[in-house]
Design goal:
The chain starts with a strand and ends with a helix. By secondary structure, the chain is α/β, with parallel strands linked by helices. It has one domain: Flavodoxin domain (Rossmann fold, 3-Layer(aba) Sandwich), CATH 3.40.50.360. Helices cover 39% and strands 16% of the residues.
């Protein structure tokens, strides 16, 4: 089994990466392979609604999306993590969600039966909206979404501050444990 966390922050090594990485450590502790996938530096453009993915499992936009999509398709669990930018998820992760969602939906519902959920880091406001916004992606794609001891959100601004949010880090750890638990229960 494999779990991946896709980081929608344009900053490498930032709070969102630390927060999601903490959940991955909890998952790995249960003997599950994990991988952190950074979108930082990748060219992932928004969907243009051409609907080419309705005919085949691809996207004609020439950028870095398809290798990430194939990692998602191969994974048993997918965590999407984003910082809050102007009260919402980053454009980078939203473009990934739009396009991979369409491709998966129109091609055998490729994500159905996987485990997944969102994680969000904010300086102050927008975390609840962003968390809900991102979690709405998982529902129509047939994911099983475990909970935690609180919403998977953390408070931080400057690099490394997320580790000072004890409740947030505990929530991330418990979310990771629940992802691993659910993966174990769902294995055939």
């Amino acid at each position: 089994m494999k779990a991946i966390a896709i980081i929608g922050s344009p900053r490498k090594g930032g709070n969102t990466e630390v927060f999601a990485g903490h959940a991955l450590k909890a998952i790995a502790e249960q003997g599950i392979d994990t991988e952190l996938v950074r979108l930082a530096g990748l060219d992932i453009r928004p969907c243009n609604a051409c609907m080419a993915c309705d005919k085949e499992e691809t996207c004609p936009i020439k950028d870095d999306l398809l290798p990430v999509y194939h990692k998602m398709k191969a994974a048993d669990a997918i965590i999407l993590a984003s910082p809050v930018y102007w009260g919402s998820a980053t454009a980078l992760i939203m473009a990934l969600m739009e396009r991979t969602g369409y491709i998966a939906l129109h091609n055998g519902r490729a994500f159905t039966g996987k485990v997944g959920g969102a994680m969000v880091v904010a300086r102050r406001a927008g975390k609840s909206f962003t968390f809900a916004q991102m979690n709405l992606w998982f529902q129509p794609l047939g994911f099983f979404s475990p909970g935690s001891t609180y919403w998977n959100v953390a408070i931080a601004r400057n690099k490394g501050e997320v580790e000072k949010d004890e409740e947030g880090m505990r929530t991330a750890w418990n979310f990771g444990k629940n992802v691993a638990f659910l993966l174990d229960k769902l294995k055939v």
